Amino acid sequence: MKFILQKLKIWSNFTPLLILIIKSKYMSFTLPDLTYGFNGLEPHIDARTMEIHHDLHHNGYTNNLNKALEGTDAANSSIEDILANISNHSGAVRNNGGGYYNHCMFWEVMSPNGGGEPTGALAEDITAKFGSFEAFKTEFSAAAATRFGSGWAWLIVDATGNLAVTSTANQDNPVMDIAEVKGTPILCVDVWEHAYYLKYQNRRPEYLTNFFNVINWTEVSKRFEAAK
Length: 228
Ligand code: MN3
Description:
228 residues, mainly alpha, three-stranded antiparallel β-sheet, 9 helices, binds manganese (III) ion
């Protein structure tokens, strides 16, 4: 009996720790694995850039987001909910929450089998909105090329169901309540120098031309259908 009581006492001492471990397991964001190898997007995006970008940069945003949310009411929220109310959060949540979300999407809208042009309803909407796929490509690339400093370019579905091209600074995105142009992003490109500098140095437009060779239009179409 004494032995059992002792055992119970030992476990009860650990209870707060166990709760903390369980909580941290359930209430934290995790770095997603890439569904292709670091070299999967070669020669358009080089393996070393992908490795550093995913394992160091995206991992950093993920860990820092979890740290920034620790002990707050939002620790249990979805990333979309956090971003939609970002004006109520700290700068650390804004930067790292954006960084977390944006990169999760970025990996998915690229593929080793990517490139070409979209088909179906998305292709029709792009032509209706921009005039042609080429005209869309020009507008999207210009938004990405002219974003001063670090940021992202986006193709979004806005509140009225229309496509729009936009860009944001730093790790901001169109999901955030503070965004100048809000909507549901269906395609994004990272124009931080860490996304292209090893291979392209200061030649951002060349990186953007090559980005079009890896766009996963199947995934973009899926996001388009869900957002409509
Ligand atoms: Mn990045």
